[in-house]
């Protein structure tokens, strides 16, 4: 029994006792202390908290006629329900059921009302009416329509939504066992396209919402607990839900920042009375999903000879480089002297698998006055080579403080620290560049002598590393003020500080002679000297918000009105410094390098915005729904005359199932149609686009015979002063329906977006002498649809749910006023967004006669090269020349179509199983020269799928007609550069349908039965097994994952074991 | 009360923190207030001397080196590959074309902006200074347009800053017309620029530089009289001299010699050097290079013998000892077998398995021999010009970018006069000065070197052409010369030859005592070696094939993107 004294009275604080006995294992021993007469002279934080608690309790104690109530809560089958919130309505008083489903409430007014709620069950409201024992049975809620979803600065019941919004629960994210949220969203939400090009330690994925509607930065806006932020600071385990605002009506509350969609992340908060200490541990290994295979030394040497011979027009020796003797005797030579006659499988330099582990230690809980969710987590991932690793530490604290009826405060503190170590280069790229007749290291471990010094594996594994340290701290303090019922005024201050440090230390790496370890024969390319390059980046940003939200109802008319103001400011400063020619290899510090070879630079920028926004929600009997949002944004990125933009939106919904004429339809549980229209803006085009800035540089001059450096100034970018917002207007029609007692739910959407005044760096003539500026020009249309299905039910004790989504979008560029060239892709009037742009191929030339009769790109085309169609010429008709100006055409869109995802969840007693699949129905993928060209640059490895499948003088004519790859060549025809080659320039010859289906994730979990865990006084123990990226079905060249690119890290298949213990 | 107080406080804090939206660049200046005072104008002018605008190499991003331009010519080999130009695969997307075009116009655009600002009245800068500034900007503009009309013919011409609409209206101006503007700019520059600067002030463009570059473009365009007059005017300034030691002229240690008429320095201290990964390419493997690019045998054969005769006519030539009795520039450009090079004797003989590290005296394996390393020089040669120990100590040499040197002015003068058929002693003197310097003697000591005495126009024309090839190898001039002499269709439709593999060499050549060359090739009047006899006997092999299409390759293609976005631009024929 705890007692405290005030100047006048002594109260026995029964509530605290109850609270303590019921759930908490934290003892506030200090409560036995006599509190000081004055509340303002507290000694420490804990006292303050206690005092705060007491003040609130004070008011709750001792006024009404009170009774004690007890009871138990079960589900329909009679199984006790643990953790049900039992709340005395209209008061902060409440408790939770224990594992036996029992609860006790003391000093409750005898005429009060209790609510019993838990996620996944229908909430029950029961009047006390003087009863002292109330037993309750809760029914499983099969509808997600009662779910509350975030809509930006507020939340709303899903049933009342009028815009297009999708959400996914935190569990579905943490189940994926990725340390990045972005990767866990793949296939999870309709309309949300997540693409990866690698899954290296710490790598992020790219998120696109409803295709691409804007140029440049198409990343969605991430709002973390109401404040714009960086996704990387959030540990997937802390997420309560992720909500995506897809249409303009939903997103326009974020106005100019929302053109690419909005992702709202809600993180977990403490729940009163449910104190839990959780330790999560995961250990796993990963391995590349696929590794390209390359041919061995002997066939390689033959092909290398053939290539040179081809480039000499098949004159001269057919053994121009590797002699016949050497080839014929290679296996013996290799056996005798593998250093001199290697037969290297470069993938043997990779580890077979790579481990990773995660730990998280978290507490969640609190009282009805203070609630917290705090955690500390650590992740450690290794890579497929020793040269790379990633470590991350995150600290997380979300606190809610209910001061009194009028004031609630929230203080959130987050910290993130990541240590990323990378070797120079990427293993996958180096794999395919390896020729089998070279070794990186001799048998004795020395760095081998290499053709061009281009010993890449030595460069990656021996020549130092790029280490970076990222730190980010962000905080959020907010205060809710509720002066009258229905009105809430919230003030938010959210600062974010980040600091990034990078040290790139290159260690001079000598190569030595095969016979003579003391003879340095050169230095590994790019590691010719020891040098250090340091980068520091310092950034801070601050968001402040003042928001008022008022809801009321007049009869059947419900109104919610929101008004707010948001300010944002960010500042970024970076500096870099380097020195070269270090004498020693073990002091990666600037002061250790010579003065002669030093360089440094620095720069800074800032950006600010100010916004006013508002929203009105109206609904009549929950049947007719109406919502309107508007945001008025000002950005420092535009000149003051063109600075402000207004982004309104309007949406309506009609819940047909509440109408009399449908109420009797037995299978229909819910039906709503909705329509929306709205506008969004985009302003992400650099920080000072309307100003022609003067850049600074240096030129050298002679002064006598001395050389001096002189500072120079120049305009580098053409400025367009009236540049302003890009606007996207978007229309959306959707249906939400539920059938069979809400077991089957369907959401479907169709949308049409038009982006105008698009900000594009259109090609301007190079002879202006300045870079292409961003201009407000042109139009783009995107149409798309989304379908989301979910069915859940149970058979006996087997609970199951199946969900699937499929979505598609297609863009078309309208009048642009120009063109934007992007290498092999283009944006021009009539094209899709970044459509492939190249030649139309006509197969492979089989003989000289065919060449003589056709137009060619250059004079070095020979039989075995790819032939192209002469489409046009300067006069608009074929001119007998294949030229990049007149014979390239649009070859189809480059963006994925018909993306889909699916999920099956099964639950049986303590077991649960989830299966996630994901894929792309159609995509024009491009076999890049890096992937498929044998002997690239004349020497790189030969992919095994090319071997015996290329045009060759040594083949029969018949075989040559059926090969998939052109002849071997390095000069002209075979050159890899788009400019001087023929065979590997972009053409439809190399395009194929890159559609894929992937078994994304299979997770099996088991919760130990309470009969076991109760004995050791543990609340729950969960074991889990998980496989990610198990396999895929696709038409990619063998060895390539459909999502990987040759130059990035591999896509990894991951196996995880996890254990989670809750005390 | 407390609640209200708290509320007011918070509301005040939040509302008073409204973001300021008028933000200006922090680490850059705004163009609005620029060009107002002397310092700002000077800084803008200094930009025009940025080394990338003057690098003779066409693709300064990828090849930031001296002499890489020669990869387009017949002086060059690169293992089994050839460049886009020498290989005949150039098109409007080639990086050579797009980068050069872009860099030249970037410089022209900057010069035009400065000129437009200098036309406005400015009380902060004295009239004399303004004149010099205008002269500098016009000098630069003319130099850049000279490069453009030489490679592309007719190009878009403008002399005032362009806005986007004006730019899209621009078509190609006739090169003859542009040439007139170029002359005007150079003439203005020549009359307003100082002849010299004191040794305590930065050396900007000079009168001599304007005259020399004017002479060059006039010569390139076949405007002989203008060329000879401008060259003569430059010579008459008497501020330039030939540097006494030919080989040292190109080394990093030689800064601003009296021979440099216009040059842009590099500097290790300022971080402007030849990139490390480029430096290793021409270096021999013993010198820690990777022996990737070499002088061609065509170049080696082009050097005259010490009697002034080509190798197929001179009794002093011995194919087994191809470096003996040759013009001294031969061994100053190509490493002579057996001589010391970057700390090792250079000897590519396939049986020379060991060599001596001259710094330590140790016997080590000879990485320059294909008997040891297959990737040693494919044709046995190694490039010496520009290279010394400064390259191998840190792989960051900083030799000057010589835009034009006095030897070129002399030979421009001589060539123009020959073409005018106005051949007098000054013509012979000009050639002989250049040749005598290579021999380290005065041009008047005609017995000490093979002085030129011929006065027949056609004979002298070919002597001059060989002289230019010997003098300017690996300075980025050979390609220009074969283009304007219209011999590219001949010299670039040839094979690049190299050595057969070591085993075959031993069998066919070494055993018979025929190493290095078993035979003397015939050299024609344009300096083309005929290797067919040796090739047919299997002594040598083809490394790669050059290709040049005379119907189109004399001009470069306009960059494809320029053609696609601007209907007023036409492409050069054949592309």
Distance between the termini of chain B: 84 Å
- Total beta strand runs of chain B: 13
Strand count, sense and closure of the main sheet of chain A?
22 strands, antiparallel, barrel
- So how many helices of chain A? 15
Query: On the 0-100 scale, what is the average pLDDT of chain B?
Result: 91
Q: What class, by secondary structure content of chain B?
A: mainly alpha
| Number of E-type strands of chain A | 54
Based on CA inertia axes, which overall geometry of chain B fits?
globular
Percent in strands of chain B: 5-15%
Stretches of chain B where pLDDT falls below 50 for ≥5 residues?
Answer: none
User: How big a fraction of the residues of chain A is strand?
Assistant: over 45%
Helix content of chain A: under 10%
The greatest inter-chain interface is formed by: A-B, 126 and 134 residues
- By helix and strand content of chain A, what is the structural category? mainly beta
Average pLDDT number of chain A: 85
Amount of helix of chain B: 25-40%
Count, helices of chain B: 20
| Distance, first to last CA of chain A | 25 Å
Radius of gyration of chain A, in Å, reads: 33 Å
- Rg calculated over all Cα atoms of chain B: 27 Å
Spatial ordering of strands, largest sheet of chain B: 2-4
Short synopsis of the structure:
The complex is a heterodimer of chains A (1063) and B (575). Chain A is mainly beta and 1063 residues long.
Structure commentary:
With about 1050 residues, chain A is mainly beta. In chain A, the strands form 13 sheets. Chain A has a 22-stranded antiparallel barrel. In chain A, strands 12-17-18-15-16 form a five-stranded mixed sheet. The longest helix of chain A is centred in the N-terminal third of the chain and has 16 residues, at about 45-60. Chain A is globular and about 110 Å long. Chain A starts with a strand and ends with a strand. Chain B is mostly helical and about 575 residues long. Helices cover about 40% and strands about 5% of the residues of chain B. Chain B has 20 helices and 13 strands. Chain B has helices spanning about 1-15, 40-45, 95-120, 125-150, 165-170, 175-190, 205-220, 225-235, 275-280, 295-300, 330-335, 390-395, 405-420, 425-440, 455-470, 480-485, 490, 500-510, 530-535, 560-565; strands spanning about 30, 75, 260-265, 295, 340, 345, 355, 365, 400-405, 495-500, 520-525, 530, 540-545. The radius of gyration of chain B is 27 Å and the shape is globular.
């Amino acid at each position: 029994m705890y007692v405290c004294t005030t100047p006048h009275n002594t109260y026995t604080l029964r509530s605290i006792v109850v609270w303590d006995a019921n759930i908490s294992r934290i003892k506030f021993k200090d409560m036995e202390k006599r509190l000081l007469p004055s509340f303002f002279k507290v000694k420490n934080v804990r006292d303050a908290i206690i005092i705060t608690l007491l003040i609130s309790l004070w008011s709750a104690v001792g006024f009404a006629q009170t009774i004690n109530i007890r009871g138990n809560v079960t589900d329909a089958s009679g199984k006790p329900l643990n953790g049900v919130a039992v709340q005395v309505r209209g008061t902060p008083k409440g408790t939770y059921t224990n594992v036996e489903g029992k609860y006790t409430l003391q000093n409750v007014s005898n005429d009060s009302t209790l609510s019993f709620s838990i996620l996944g069950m229908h909430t029950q409201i029961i009047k006390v009416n003087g009863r002292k024992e109330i037993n309750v049975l809760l029914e499983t809620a099969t509808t997600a329509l009662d779910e509350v979803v975030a809509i930006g600065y507020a939340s709303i019941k899903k049933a009342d939504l009028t815009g297009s919004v999708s959400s996914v629960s935190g569990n579905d994210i943490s189940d994926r066992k990725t340390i990045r949220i972005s990767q866990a969203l793949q296939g999870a939400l309709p309309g949300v396209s997540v693409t990866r090009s690698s899954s290296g330690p710490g790598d992020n994925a790219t998120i696109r919402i409803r295709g691409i509607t804007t140029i440049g930065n198409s990343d969605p806006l991430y709002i973390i607990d109401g404040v714009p932020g960086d996704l990387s600071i959030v540990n997937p385990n802390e997420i309560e839900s992720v909500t995506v605002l897809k249409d303009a009506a939903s997103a326009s509350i974020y106005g100019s920042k929302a053109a690419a969609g909005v992702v709202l992340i809600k993180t977990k908060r403490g729940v009163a009375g449910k104190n839990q200490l959780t330790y999560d541990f995961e250990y796993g290994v990963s391995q590349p999903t696929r590794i390209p295979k390359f041919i061995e030394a002997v066939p390689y040497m033959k092909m290398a000879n053939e290539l040179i011979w081809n480039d000499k027009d098949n004159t001269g020796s057919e053994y121009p480089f590797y002699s016949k003797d050497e080839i014929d005797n290679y296996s013996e030579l290799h056996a005798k002297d593998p250093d001199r006659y290697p037969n290297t499988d470069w993938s043997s330099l990779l580890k077979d698998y790579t481990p990773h582990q995660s730990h998280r230690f978290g507490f969640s809980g609190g009282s009805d006055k203070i609630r917290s969710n705090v955690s500390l987590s650590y992740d450690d991932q290794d890579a497929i080579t020793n040269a790379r690793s990633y470590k991350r530490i995150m600290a997380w604290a979300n606190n809610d403080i209910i001061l009194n009826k009028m004031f609630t405060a929230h203080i959130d503190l987050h910290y993130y620290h990541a240590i990323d170590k990378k070797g120079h280069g990427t293993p996958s790229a180096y794999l395919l560049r390896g020729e089998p007749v070279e070794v990186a290291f001799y048998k004795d471990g020395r760095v081998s002598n290499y053709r061009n010094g281009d010993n890449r594996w030595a460069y990656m594994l021996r020549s130092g590393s790029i280490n970076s340290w990222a730190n980010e701290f962000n905080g959020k303090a907010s205060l809710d003020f509720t002066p009258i019922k229905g009105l809430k005024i919230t003030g938010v201050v959210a600062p974010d500080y980040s600091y990034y440090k990078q040290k790139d230390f290159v260690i001079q790496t000598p190569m030595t002679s095969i016979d003579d370890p003391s003879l340095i024969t050169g230095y590994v390319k790019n590691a010719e000297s020891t040098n250090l390059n340091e980068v520091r980046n310092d950034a801070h940003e601050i968001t402040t918000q003042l928001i008022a939200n008022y809801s009321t109802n007049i009869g059947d008319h419900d109104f919610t009105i929101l008004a707010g103001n948001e300010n944002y400011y960010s500042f970024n400063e970076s500096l870099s410094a380097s020195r070269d020619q270090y004498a020693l290899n073990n002091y990666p510090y600037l002061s250790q390098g010579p003065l002669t070879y030093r360089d440094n630079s620095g720069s800074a920028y800032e950006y600010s915005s100010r916004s006013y926004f508002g929203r009105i929600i109206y609904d009549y009997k929950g049947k007719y729904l109406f919502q309107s949002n508007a945001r008025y944004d000002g950005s420092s990125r535009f000149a003051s005359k063109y600075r402000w933009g207004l982004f309104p939106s309007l949406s309506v919904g009609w819940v047909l199932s509440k109408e009399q004429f449908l109420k009797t339809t037995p299978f229909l549980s819910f039906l709503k149609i909705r329509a929306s229209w709205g506008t969004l803006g985009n302003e992400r085009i650099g920080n000072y686009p309307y100003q022609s800035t003067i850049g600074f540089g240096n030129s050298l001059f002679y002064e006598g015979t001395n050389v001096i450096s002189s500072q120079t100034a120049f305009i580098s970018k053409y400025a367009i002063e009236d540049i302003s917002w890009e606007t996207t207007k978007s229309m959306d029609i959707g249906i939400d329906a539920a059938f069979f007692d809400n077991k089957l739910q369907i959401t479907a959407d169709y949308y049409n977006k038009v982006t105008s005044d698009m900000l594009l760096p259109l090609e301007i003539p190079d002879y202006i002498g300045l870079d292409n500026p961003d201009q407000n020009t042109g139009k783009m249309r995107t149409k798309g649809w989304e379908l989301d299905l979910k069915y859940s039910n149970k058979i006996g004790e087997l609970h199951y749910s199946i969900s699937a989504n499929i979505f598609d979008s297609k863009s078309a560029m309208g009048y642009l006023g120009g063109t934007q060239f992007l290498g092999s892709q283009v944006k021009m009037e009539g094209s899709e967004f970044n459509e492939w742009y190249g030649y139309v191929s006509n197969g492979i030339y089989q003989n000289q006669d065919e060449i003589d009769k056709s137009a060619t790109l250059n004079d070095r085309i020979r039989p075995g090269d790819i032939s192209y169609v002469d489409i046009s010429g300067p006069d608009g008709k074929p001119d007998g020349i294949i030229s990049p100006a007149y014979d390239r055409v649009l070859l189809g869109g480059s963006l994925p179509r018909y993306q889909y995802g699916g999920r099956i969840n099964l639950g049986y007693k303590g077991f649960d199983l989830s299966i996630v699949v994901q894929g792309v129905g159609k995509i024009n993928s491009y076999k890049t020269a890096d992937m498929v060209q044998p002997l690239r640059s004349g020497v790189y490895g030969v992919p095994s799928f090319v071997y015996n499948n290329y045009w060759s003088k040594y083949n029969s004519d018949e075989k040559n007609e059926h090969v998939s790859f052109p002849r071997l060549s390095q000069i002209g025809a075979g050159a890899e550069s788009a400019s001087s080659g023929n065979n590997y320039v972009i053409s439809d010859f190399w395009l194929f349908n890159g559609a894929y289906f992937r078994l994304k994730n299979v997770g099996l979990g088991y919760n130990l039965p309470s009969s076991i865990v109760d004995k050791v006084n543990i609340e729950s123990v969960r074991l889990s097994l998980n496989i990610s990226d198990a396999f895929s079905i696709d038409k990619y060249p063998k060895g390539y994952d459909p999502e990987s690119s040759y130059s990035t890290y591999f896509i990894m298949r991951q196996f995880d074991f996890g254990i989670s213990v809750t005390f | 009360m407390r609640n209200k107080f708290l509320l007011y406080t918070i509301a005040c804090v939040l509302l008073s923190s409204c973001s300021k939206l008028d933000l200006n660049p922090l680490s850059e200046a705004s163009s609005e207030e620029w060009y107002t005072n002397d310092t700002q104008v000077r800084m803008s002018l200094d930009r025009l001397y940025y080394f990338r605008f003057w690098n003779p190499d066409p693709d300064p991003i990828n090849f930031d080196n001296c002499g890489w331009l020669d990869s387009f010519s017949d002086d060059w080999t690169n293992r089994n590959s050839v460049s886009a130009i020498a290989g005949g695969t150039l098109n409007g997307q080639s990086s050579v074309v797009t980068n050069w075009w872009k860099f030249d116009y970037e410089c022209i655009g900057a010069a035009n902006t400065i000129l437009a600002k200098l036309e406005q009245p400015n009380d902060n800068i004295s009239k004399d200074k303004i004149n010099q500034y205008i002269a500098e900007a016009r000098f630069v503009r003319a130099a850049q347009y000279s490069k453009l009309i030489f490679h592309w013919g007719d190009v878009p011409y403008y002399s005032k800053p362009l806005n986007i609409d004006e730019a899209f209206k621009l078509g190609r101006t006739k090169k003859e017309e542009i040439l007139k503007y170029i002359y005007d700019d150079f003439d203005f520059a020549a009359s307003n620029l100082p002849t010299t600067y004191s040794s305590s002030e930065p050396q900007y463009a000079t009168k001599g530089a304007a005259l020399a570059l004017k002479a060059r473009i006039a010569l390139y365009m076949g405007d002989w009289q203008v060329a000879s007059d401008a060259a003569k005017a430059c010579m008459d300034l008497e501020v330039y001299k030939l540097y006494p030691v030919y080989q040292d002229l190109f080394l990093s240690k030689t800064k601003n010699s009296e021979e440099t008429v216009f040059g842009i320095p590099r500097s290790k201290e300022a971080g402007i050097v030849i990139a490390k990964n480029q430096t290793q390419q021409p270096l021999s493997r013993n010198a820690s290079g990777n022996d990737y690019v070499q002088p061609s045998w065509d170049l080696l054969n082009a050097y005259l013998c010490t009697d002034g005769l080509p190798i197929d006519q001179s009794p002093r030539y011995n194919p087994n000892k191809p470096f003996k009795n040759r013009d001294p520039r031969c061994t100053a450009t190509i490493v002579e077998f057996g001589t010391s090079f970057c700390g090792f004797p250079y000897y590519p003989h396939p049986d020379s398995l060991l060599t001596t590290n001259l710094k330590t005296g140790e016997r080590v394996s000879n990485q320059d021999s294909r008997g040891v390393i297959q990737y040693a020089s494919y044709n046995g040669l190694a490039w010496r010009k520009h290279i010394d120990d400064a390259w191998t100590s840190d792989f960051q040499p900083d030799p000057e970018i010589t835009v034009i040197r006095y030897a070129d002015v002399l030979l421009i003068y001589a060539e123009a006069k020959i073409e005018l058929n106005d051949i007098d002693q000054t013509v012979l003197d000009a050639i002989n000065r250049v040749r005598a310097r290579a021999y380290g003697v005065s041009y008047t000591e005609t017995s000490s070197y093979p002085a030129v005495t011929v006065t027949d126009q056609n004979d002298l024309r070919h002597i001059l052409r060989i002289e230019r090839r010997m003098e300017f190898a690996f300075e980025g001039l050979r390609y220009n010369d074969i283009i304007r002499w219209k011999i590219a269709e001949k010299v670039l439709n040839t094979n690049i030859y190299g050595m057969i593999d070591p085993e075959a060499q031993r069998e066919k050549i070494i055993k018979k005592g025929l190493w290095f060359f078993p035979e003397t090739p015939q050299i024609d009047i344009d300096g083309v070696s005929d290797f067919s006899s040796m090739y047919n006997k299997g002594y040598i092999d083809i490394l790669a094939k050059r290709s040049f299409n005379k119907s189109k390759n004399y001009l470069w293609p306009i960059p494809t993107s320029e053609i696609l976005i601007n209907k007023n631009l036409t492409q050069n024929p054949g592309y």
